[in-house]
Structure formats: structure tokens, C-alpha cells
Amino acid sequence: MALPHTQIGGGGLHILVAEDIDGGYTVPNRGVFIHAVDGVSLTLERNEVLGIAGESGCGKSTLAKIIYGAVEPPLTVRRGRVLIEAGDKGFIDMLSCDRDTVRREIMWKTLSYIPQNSMNVLNPMKRIRDHFIETFKFHGMEIGKRDVVNYIREVFNSVGLPVDAINAYPHQLSGGMRQRIVIALALMLRPRVVLADEPTTAVDVVTQLGILSFLKEWQRSNKCSIIVISHDMGVHAYMDDRIAIMYAGNIVEYGEAEKVFMEPLHPYTKLLIESLIKRGERTLKKGILGSPPNLANPPPGCRFHPRCPYAMDVCRREEPPETIVGSRYRVRCWLYSRDGR
Ligand SMILES: Nc1ncnc2c1ncn2[C@@H]1O[C@H](COP(=O)(O)OP(=O)(O)OP(=O)(O)O)[C@@H](O)[C@H]1O
Ligand SMILES: [Mg+2]
Description:
Blueprint: E1 14-27, E2 32-45, E3 49-53, H1 60-68, E4 75-85, E5 91-93, H2 99-106, E6 111-114, H3 128-138, H4 145-159, H5 175-187, E7 193-197, H6 205-222, E8 225-229, H7 233-239, E9 242-247, E10 250-256, H8 257-262, H9 267-274, H10 313-317, E11 323-324, E12 330-331
Parallel strand pairs: 3-8, 3-9, 6-7, 7-8
Antiparallel strand pairs: 1-2, 1-4, 4-5, 9-10, 10-12, 11-12
Helix pairs in contact: 3-4
The structure holds adenosine-5'-triphosphate (ATP) and magnesium ion.
Magnesium ion is lined by residues 60-61, 116, 197-198.
């Protein structure tokens, strides 16, 4: 399948391209559509960490499910493609390809998904080592028990897990340990893309740093790519090469993380970054005034206008167009539009 030429970042670099994704949840019997992802496009390049940031409820996990092709009612996709490079097969569209091919060719081997709250997905009836052995078997991999145990030892050491945890049942382990086991499982078949949704939300800050530095080191040494989803801007400051800021189903700013953190353009991004605690501060941060809109009935114009300190008349009336600011940067805000309104 040919790649679109309109994407940001130049040709040949991409390993995954999400194009104009539009999706959400149909609430049965009420005729309501919760428009969680509205016209989102992004690309993932080889050998990079791309962050997706934004407040709770802005559509990050919904976008992750769509990228992984995990689209089941009430979630529906109304438009868009998710192209992923699958070796000599070229680019496969996760949304239109048959599920058997996706399961056989893509999942775990090419694209691994660590869902939000995934520490709870481990089967309570099975020891940790059996989760690993069964995953290898499911993918028809010829591998002896000893090799599996060796892999587990190597990864457990890197993520700071005691090796004898392989003999435990999930309920015998702490949340942080279970989270690290889920991550080790996701990386087992050395996927080229990892989609990690809030991989450290449920753990303390020391464990968080351990997990994030392991992921980053693993990404560098395996030359793979990671999409890391988090509402925590501290996680993004540490992890990301590029970052997409989501607000109410839209990407409002997208570019190199260093630039976004140093000179954010969108008022929402500025407020998100200002809400980070800085060294020496001992105050509770106020956060951003107000709350994100109801996605079943978002406000007209720019969805952020009711909370935006710079809102102008046009913001209340019309959706802002996307403005390209340099070759690898874009922002969706009337303040930067060259439209002359
Ligand atoms: N199964 C569902 N049925 C109906 N609405 C849903 C469902 N899952 C999510 N939503 C709604 O879709 C919107 C986006 O939710 P989503 O989980 O994608 O946000 P998020 O950015 O991942 O939030 P968080 O940071 O809390 O994980 C929210 O309004 C949410 O209430
Ligand atoms: Mg989420």
C-alpha cells in the first residue's frame, strides 16, 4: 500500500501513519455519539518516542485502541486509516485488514499494546512464567522452557524485578511489579512499535523512573519506536522525541518535544506545562480552570475557547484550521492562523 505524501516528517522515515481518524462511542438507545477522536492525523518515525498528552477524557486511550485496531462496540470508527509497516508486506491498514492477518502478522511481533490499567489483565489462576510460555506458544514460536526462563531473567533484571517472581501468582505481587511484568510480556517478541497507554500511572515515582528509563533504554538498544500516552507532562518531558497535545478529541499542537516544552504555542499546551511542579516549589498547582467539554456535545468553534485566556470572537464561532509552523511542527489555534480572520 502506498504511503500518503502529505504527512509531516519526510518520506521513508515512517513506521506508522494515522490518517484523519474519526471515532467515538455510540450510546445505545439514546442516539448519542461521544466524539472522542475527531480528525486526528499523526506519524510515528523509526527509532523515536512519540508522546500523546492531554487531560483525562480527551480521547488518548480511544485513539490508542483505534491505532491498535481494537475497535469493538460501542467504539466505532467513522473515518480514517492506520497504516503500519509489516515487513515485506509493505504497509497494512489496521482498520480494514482482516483480524486474522493482524493477529498473526502484526500484534506482539510488529506492534505491541500495553493498555491502560493493564496490570489487572494477568490471569489470577496462572503463575507468571506460564503467561510468558503461553505467549510464545500462541505465536507458534519454537522455544524451549529454558530459553523462556533466560529471557525472563534478563528482562526482570533490567526492570528491577526479583527473578523468583516468575513462580508467583499475580495476586502475590504488588501493582508496580504486575505493571512491569505486563511491560516485559509486551516486549517479549521484540516488536518494532510499542503503544504504551499510561504505563506508569499506578506506580510510585521511584518505580515510575525505573520503568521509564528501562523503556527508553530498550527503545534505543532495539532501535524500535514507542508511542507513550500519559496525562503526566513529567513523563513526556523525560521520554518524548516528539509530542502531540490532545484536547477534546483534537490534536492541538504537534512537534519536537524540546520545542514544545521550551516554547509552547497553543494556550492549552502553555497551561499544561505551567502546571508542572518545579524544583523548590511547595504549592499545590491550580491546574487549568474549568473542565474539558462533554464530547457528546462539544462547544462550537475551538473546543478550548471556554477555558482559553486569549479567546477571541472567531474562536467562539469557527474551528481553528491547522497552521504548519516549520517542517515538523503544527498548531491548531486562531492566534497563529494566517487566514486573516
Ligand atoms: N466504553 C465507553 N463508552 C462510552 N464512552 C466512553 C467509553 N470509553 C471512553 N468513553 C468516553 O470517551 C471520552 C474519551 O475517553 P478516553 O478514555 O479515550 O480518554 P483519555 O484521554 O484516555 O482519559 P484518561 O486520561 O482518563 O485515561 C471520554 O468522554 C470518555 O468518557
Ligand atoms: Mg486513558
